[in-house]
Amino acid sequence: MEMLGFVGGTGPQGRGLGLRLAQAGHPVLLGSRDPAKAEEAVAKVHGKDPDVDVRGVSNAEACTAADVVFITIPYGGQAAALEDLADAIGDKIVVNCVNALAFDERGPHPVSVAAGSAAEESQQLLPRARVVGAFQNVSATKLLRPPDPIEADVLICGDDEDARAAVAPLVERIPGLHPVDAGPLRLARPIEELTAVLLAVNKRTGGHSSIRLTGLP
Amino acid sequence: MEMLGFVGGTGPQGRGLGLRLAQAGHPVLLGSRDPAKAEEAVAKVHGKDPDVDVRGVSNAEACTAADVVFITIPYGGQAAALEDLADAIGDKIVVNCVNALAFDERGPHPVSVAAGSAAEESQQLLPRARVVGAFQNVSATKLLRPPDPIEADVLICGDDEDARAAVAPLVERIPGLHPVDAGPLRLARPIEELTAVLLAVNKRTGGHSSIRLTGLP
């Protein structure tokens, strides 16, 4: 199975996706600028499942060694992190899971991104890469509770149809998740920003919400 | 039951919501700039259900006579329509159902709105009104197929908590719809723009998609 590398893989989203995809059989590299943080993240993942093939590496090594690169860094750090990684990533498939959000006394809210969305920004910074937006609306809390299935549809957008199709089976390897092809990358903004709505609902209800699409044939 | 007035009520969204809420017992006024179009819309609604209390009026009359005002006008016409209606609407509850979308050869996509979203724009144009965004993601096609239930959650956002709470029972009166309190009006953008994603998925699948939230307590 493809080796998966995570840029900024030490937070809950990176650890959660890494854990679940490693449980499905993928070798996983959790990348960080800080080797100690990468090791700490791997220890946390092994605390959930000691048998998974997960290692801590630098972000550059995660990109160089991986077949598919995941970006799971907080939005504020994305541009700085990706500037140095374009060569290591080359024309690989990049799965951008970033949500451009901020929080204030009124709760979570989207922040405006000049490129339109975090995913489109990453495509600009990685012009040769085949960027796909996916997994933005999946609860990291739920990812970190294996083996519980996560009842959610994962909207996949990107301008390379083959890349979208290649990401769909990765979605299906996490119990309960179903991929939905949402088309071009310019639709990443509403998908990313929807996470602010889901977090606002979580705050009111104590839930860990995701979405399912209804009304499909 | 409250009388409901629809600004731009002659399109599929206005007719669909008007039909369903009239079937629930509300008197409904479908407003239009053009009296002939309003009459035509009422005839279409009565073609689906001859027993509902639905009448065609001017947009101004829909606002003056209604207890709650719905805005179901295409985004391109919203600003011009609302400019003259602020006095007629006053401090009433306004349910903004507008999606700021456009379509080109690559499909549906969000259009940028200076105010952030169509709902926020309407709040700026109607400063005394209590604007709530709701129903943006509900399929008009499904609304126009009574008595079939519509399996969807309706995200309700607005800065007036009482107004959000007042709109929730209106949602519940349409079979299958459930209200979800999403908090402040600044979250209207992702909710509106999500409709572009749903329409893109519809185009690929032939469905009439809406969303349900999962992972709530």
Helical/strand content category of chain A: alpha/beta
Oligomer: homodimer
Largest interface: A-B, 43 and 43 residues
Q: Would you count the extended β strands of chain A for me?
A: 11
Report the sheet with the most strands of chain A, covering strand number, pairing sense and barrel closure: 8 strands, mixed
Distance from first to last alpha carbon of chain A: 31 Å
Order of helices and strands of chain A: EHEHEHEHHEEEHEHEHEHE
Q: Please, what is the average pLDDT of chain A? A: 97
Unreliable stretches of chain A (pLDDT < 50, length at least 5) are none
DSSP helical segment count of chain A: 9
Helix residue percentage of chain A: 40-55%
Strand content of the residues of chain A, in percent?
15-25%
Characterise the protein shown here.
Two copies of one chain form a homodimer. In chain A, 41% of the residues lie in helices and 24% in strands. Chain A is α/β, with parallel strands linked by helices and 217 residues long. In chain A, helix 4 (75-83) packs parallel to helix 6 (118-125). Strand 11 (210-214) of chain A pairs antiparallel with strand 11 (210-214) of chain B.
